[in-house]
Amino acid sequence: MNIVEQTVPGYERVVWGTDDSIGYRGLVAIHSTRLGPAVGGTRFWQYNSGDEALTDALRLARGMTYKNALAELPFGGGKAIIIGDNRVRDREKIFRAHGRFINSLGGRYITGEDVGTSPSDMEYVRQETSYVGGLQDRSGDPSPRTARGVFRAMQAAANYRWGSDDLSGKTVAIQGCGHVGYFLAGELRQAGAKLVVADVDAERAQLTASEFDAQAVAPEEIYKIRADILAPCALGGVLNKSTVPQLEVEMVVGAANNQLLEPSDGNLLDQRHILYAPDYAANAGGVISGCCIEMLGWDLSRTLAKIDLVYGTLLRIFESSKQNRIPPHEAADQLAESILGGTQ
After folding, report:
1. Is the pLDDT reported for residue 27 higher than 70?
2. What is the DSSP string of 165-198?
3. At what angle do helices 179-190 and 202-211 cross, to 10 degrees?
4. Residues 229 and 269 grouped into a single domain
5. What is the rounded distance in angstroms from the CA atom of residue 134 to the CA atom of residue 336?
6. DSSP code, position 132
7. Of 118, 79, 117, 141, whose CA–CA distance to 285 is shortest?
8. Contact by Cβ (8 Å): 8, 30
9. Overall pTM surpassing 0.90 (yes/no)
10. Are strands 13-19 and 24-32 parallel, antiparallel or unpaired?
11. Shared domain check, 26 and 108
12. Is residue 333 over pLDDT 60?
């Protein structure tokens, strides 16, 4: 394993790891360990370049710092990237190499699953390091917990905007029907919401639509749907100068990380009076589950109660936004930074 350090201002450590003999190329960005060891999943994705992967890792790592701070978890923020085709069949050699890379950081970073990876992949990582969560025999797939947190965030946004957190009869457009989008559809359907869904994988969208009595539309159409809520549950950057003007919704509450392509896109939402639930506050359920069960030793009922506190966190953000006359994404940043500043 060849390991190379890269200095990035504002980040504690950025490290590249490669093993050309098996085609492994990985990256770990540690944003902050001020609250505790950095925690964040491993994303397996075919980036167009190393610079593109680095940009994604840096944004995701910073988001994890803020996510863990707002959730009041004793952990910092980091993120790992494996660059390559996540459909690779021989996963053991890739993820065991990844485990050795993680282990070389000596516990300053603890990984788990993310886009392109799974609890079974983390089992391979566990063979090489103890600094891994989201394991099959422990907290397992975080997707249902992430979906639960997003659902609670959606209820908080509804309460703030409409005076009631009852979502029955509301129309929710879900962009992305992967694990989290699928479980969120289930939560919303049970609550009596009407659903419109889209995914780049048409078969996955149709499966979700048929199971939860939803309308499936083409991926590019989801931004134009007249609905009460848009829930981005795929990759980041979907809220931008092209998509925001198309939106016909009152709020955006979803599971995807880094939904705003640029911070200024949050201002665009605010100018259009579209209430935005900052992603790292809304999607904290998965990391809360993994950290509380696997690292803090909590039982499931206590952990689920902690996830439900996402509701109160979002209300605090919205109230701060109103009082300080700033968009919610800025209010969330300020709240997270105040928590981090208080630990100095």
Report:
1. yes
2. ---TT-EEEEE--SHHHHHHHHHHHHTT-EEEEE
3. 20
4. yes
5. 24
6. B
7. 141
8. no
9. yes
10. antiparallel
11. yes
12. yes
Q: What is the CATH number of the domain that holds 92?
A: 3.40.50.10860
CA distance 265 to 140: 34
Domain of 249 in residue numbering reads as 143-283+312-340
Q: Give CA–CA dist 133/40, Å, rounded.
A: 9
Return the number of other C-beta atoms located less than 10 Å from residue 343's C-beta: 12
The tens digit of pLDDT for each residue in 156-169 reads: 999 999 999 999 99
Give the pLDDT confidence of 191-227 residue by residue, as tens digits.
Answer: 999 999 999 999 999 999 999 999 999 999 999 999 9
- How far apart are the C-alpha atoms of 133 and 42, rounded to whole Å? 11
Q: What CATH number should be reported for the domain holding residue 216?
A: 3.40.50.720
Token pair, residue 245, equals 């003007």
121 and 149, same structural domain? no
Write phi, then psi, for 305 (nearest 5 degrees).
Answer: -65, -35
pLDDT > 60? residue 343: no
pLDDT digits (tens, 9 = 90+) for 227-242: 999 999 998 899 999 9
Place of tokens 């360990």: 33
Q: Is residue 32 part of a domain?
A: yes
Do 333 and 226 lie in one domain? The reply is: yes
Active site residue 170: no
Domains in the chain: how many in total? Answer: 2
Q: Which is catalytic among the residues 79, 170, 194, 306?
A: 79
Whole-number Å distance between alpha carbons of 99 and 129: 6
Tell whether 169 and 114 lie within a shared domain: no
Contact (CB, 8 A) for 247 and 229: no
